[in-house]
Design a protein that fits this description.
By secondary structure, this protein is an alpha/beta fold. It has a single domain (about 1-240), classed as Aldolase class I (TIM Barrel, Alpha-Beta Barrel), CATH 3.20.20.70. Helix content is about 35%, strand content about 20%. It is built from nine helices and ten strands. The protein has helices spanning about 10-25, 55-60, 80-90, 105-115, 140-145, 170-185, 195-205, 215-220, 225-240, and strands at about 1-5, 30-35, 70-75, 95-100, 120, 125-130, 130-135, 155, 190, 210-215. Helix 2 (about 55-60) crosses helix 3. It is globular and about 45 Å long. The chain starts with a strand and ends in a 7-residue tail after the last helix.
Length: about 250
């Protein structure tokens, strides 16, 4: 069970300030970076709001901050995501989420990328890179089934409009998760978008194991308490046997 805060920043300063805040919260060990190119989804976010930002960081041999404390996942909401993958890996990212709708042949792309980047080297050390594939509430069941055996995890979007935080939750995703985990019980499922504590509990009962949360934590009156409440609520349900682990 994991609650993963999502960072959607519109400048490098906002990005770094948010990470500095999150890394100080007890229990947070993974962060998702929402990378929006303004084409596949909008509005554009950092780093794509700054021309060549990833390339400049590579050339200056920079890494993402707090790598000793945080594992990074990037949700690539991009029309041309592939060229950026090697750049993100050089910065220290270990998980990448691709959106099925951004590729003509998402299954073969996912298979090839896992083969090419599944074992990467960051700062001279071998790392294992996980690739997930994201599907919206109206995802094609056949394509979802084809992708499942080739993905390290499947991400279901809990919102209709991606690229923004604070969008309303689409309850259809609960049934989508339940149906998927019945057929593919060994494939980890995470849900991103519109997730509240109550939604997370229902999604966990349906078979999801990871919850990407943006505004419900970062826009809360007390983000530290909000994150703790997510973890506590889900842990209580597990301890009572009300939720089945994948």
């Amino acid at each position: 069970m994991a609650v993963t805060p999502a960072v959607l920043a519109h400048s490098r300063k906002e990005f770094e300030d948010t990470l500095a805040f999150l890394v100080a919260i007890p229990g947070i060990s993974r962060v998702q970076i929402d990378a929006v190119d303004g084409v596949y989804a909008a509005p554009v976010s950092w780093p794509y709001v700054e021309l060549g930002a990833l390339r400049i960081m590579r050339e200056e041999r920079e890494f993402l901050p707090h790598l000793d404390r945080l594992e990074y996942e990037v949700d690539l909401m991009c029309d041309h995501a592939e060229p950026a993958i090697s750049e993100w890996l050089r910065l220290g990212v270990s998980r990448l989420t691709l959106h099925a709708g951004a590729f003509q042949d998402p299954v073969s792309t996912l298979t090839r990328l896992r083969r090419e980047y599944g074992g990467s080297r960051v700062a001279g050390q071998s790392t294992v890179t996980a690739f997930g594939m994201a599907f919206g509430p109206d995802a094609d069941d056949a394509l979802l089934g084809q992708a499942a055996p080739h993905a390290d995890y499947i991400q279901f979007m809990g919102i209709d409009r991606i690229g923004k935080q604070g969008e309303p939750f689409d309850a259809r995703v609960i049934d989508r998760v339940r149906a998927f985990t019945r057929v593919h019980p060994s494939v980890p499922v995470q849900v991103d978008g519109g997730v509240t504590i109550e939604h997370a509990k229902r999604l966990a009962a349906a078979g999801a194991s990871t919850f990407v949360v943006g505004s419900a934590i970062l826009h809360a009156v007390n983000p530290v308490a909000a994150f703790a409440a997510f973890e506590a609520a889900l842990e209580v349900d597990f301890s009572q046997g009300g939720i089945n682990r994948i």
